[in-house]
Amino acid sequence: MTARDLARVGAVIGVGESDYVGDHARVRAGEKPADSYGYAADAFRAALADAGIGRDEIDGLIVGPTLAYERTGEILGINPRWGGQADAMLAVIEACMAIRSGLAEVVALVYGNDQRSAAIQYGGPEAMGGNMFLSYVYHAPWGFTSQGALYAMMFRRFGELTGCTERDLGEVAVAQRHAASLNPHALMRKPITIEDYMAARYICEPLRLFDYCLINDGGVVLIIAEAERARKMARKAPVLIHGVGRSDLNRGATSLEPRLLEFYRPAQEACAAQVYAMAGVGPEDMSALQIYDSFSCHVPFALEGYGYCRPGDVGRFMREDGIGLGGRIPVNTGGGHLSESYMQGWAHQVEAVRQVRGECGARQVAARGAGDSRFVHYNSDVAGKAVSIIYGS
Amino acid sequence: MANSAAVLSMYDEPMWESIRAHDWHLQQCDDCSEWRYPPGPCCPKCLSPRSTWRPLSGRGEIASWVVFHRQYFDNWPPPYNVVAVKLAEGPLVISNLTGPEPEGSWIGRPVEVAYGTDAAGTLLPQMRLAE
């Protein structure tokens, strides 16, 4: 039995975000603008306005991992007929599944996180996520902690084997900062050069300061509707979800075998095969690529794993062909986690939708599909769970 | 901040006992001979619940390495290195390289277990370059 097709079953009709820039300034000044639910509510109001629909149209609710399902529904006043909890990428897939099965027609995907003002720790004695991923805490006796260190260990071996240098890796931070400089929603907008990147301090060598994501507060909401209904109800042209894919590597996860010895490549390749087949398009059709970038090195791993360049060639590809706006494949066109906002993949979906719509102003990417259509590919590999989504006109 | 601490499930306890005796043991599957890390209730390869704790040869080679420049724990003041080592028995483990460091790439360098301590004096299985 093969996967039942989820191609073009659901479409994004509305997106919304909290005020990353304004809230971050207030948090840095010692204020607490909102908690996770407050940021989610800000984004929810914005998404309803973007979609041009009323709250009562919503009959499905998925909340992010940082929110309690019932309390979120209570605060937003939603009594759905179907609901659940998921991270950004799985929330999109589950919304399509619910729509395909008839359990829901208009699903709100709601995320909020006060991680900065609540001083959430991603490394050290209180490392977040250890209850879900044993590898985040198991090696602490040897001083090995923080997800950044896991990626530093991975990039070191990858770089030694492929010739992708630290300077090549700097292309990611530089390109994304340039994109962020053109994005009014981005937190870090001052352009940097490769020299700035190389001069920054190491956090966990070989990764430097600019290889690490931001930590900030915020909220994101997407509204996904059944594709036919989306065309009738939405204020703007719906953005179709053309395909999804997923493949997980759990064997050897804590001892870091799939991470260090395979760079998660088998999961990415299986996920890529699924999503490209479902969508009927491939890397050459994409106008932009959004990559979950808690650390910069996600980008070279994904460029090779999803077929955007030849295996072993990513250092040259990033340096010569280019991953910035105007490059061979523009990556994280809003600035990503490194420079826009660390919304754990949620804001990447918003950027993908806005790029497909053509709403991105100075950072807008060009159409590459037939006619004036645009496809934007999103992918992530959080702890070896490769997930992929293709958005398009 | 605080000191780092080991994860101590019921399956980890015997491993740390063996480390305190300077004789690192891991579980080996009684049915398919696969070595297991981290310790656990059954063999991930063949699902057998039967295993025996056996001493490691202590030999392996470096698969990757990093150097911490930021402090996360009281008992780990930077800079310090962390290495990933592929043991001769098969498992990939995390440790620290003590003593002389290699010139150039560390990957593929043969190492052997050398018991050492963190800055708080807690005993750990660490590694040193082998001849």
How would you describe what is shown here?
Chain A: Pfam families: Thiolase_C_1. Chain A: InterPro entries: Thiolase-like (IPR016039), Thiolase_C_2 (IPR055140). Chain A: Residues 267-391 form the Thiolase C-terminal domain. Chain A: This is Lipid-transfer protein. Chain A: One of its GO terms (molecular function) is acyltransferase activity. The complex is a heterodimer of chains A (393) and B (131). Chain A is an alpha/beta fold. Chain A has a single domain, classed as Peroxisomal Thiolase, Chain A, domain 1 (3-Layer(aba) Sandwich). Chain A is built from 14 helices and eleven strands. A nine-stranded mixed beta sheet of chain A has the order 3-2-4-7-1-8-11-10-9, with helices on both faces. Chain A has a two-stranded antiparallel sheet with strand order 5-6. In chain A, strand 2 (60-63), helix 3 (69-76) and strand 3 (82-85) form a beta-alpha-beta unit. The longest helix of chain A has 16 residues, at 36-51. Chain A is globular, with a radius of gyration of 20 Å. The model of chain A has no long low-confidence stretch (mean pLDDT 96). By secondary structure, chain B is mainly beta. Chain B has one domain. In chain B, 6% of the residues lie in helices and 37% in strands. In chain B, strands 6-5-4-7-8 form a five-stranded antiparallel beta sheet, with no helix packed on it. In chain B, a hairpin with a 5-residue loop joins strand 7 (110-117) and strand 8. Chain B starts with 12 loop residues before the first helix and ends with a strand. The model of chain B has no long low-confidence stretch (mean pLDDT 97). Classes of the chains: A alpha/beta (393), B mainly beta (131). Chain A binds chain B through residues 123-125, 134, 137-146, 149, 152-154, 156-157, 160-161, 201-206, 251-252, 254-257, 260-261, and chain B through 1-7, 37-38, 44, 63-70, 72-73, 75-76, 80, 82, 84, 91-96, 105, 107, 118, 122, 124, 126.
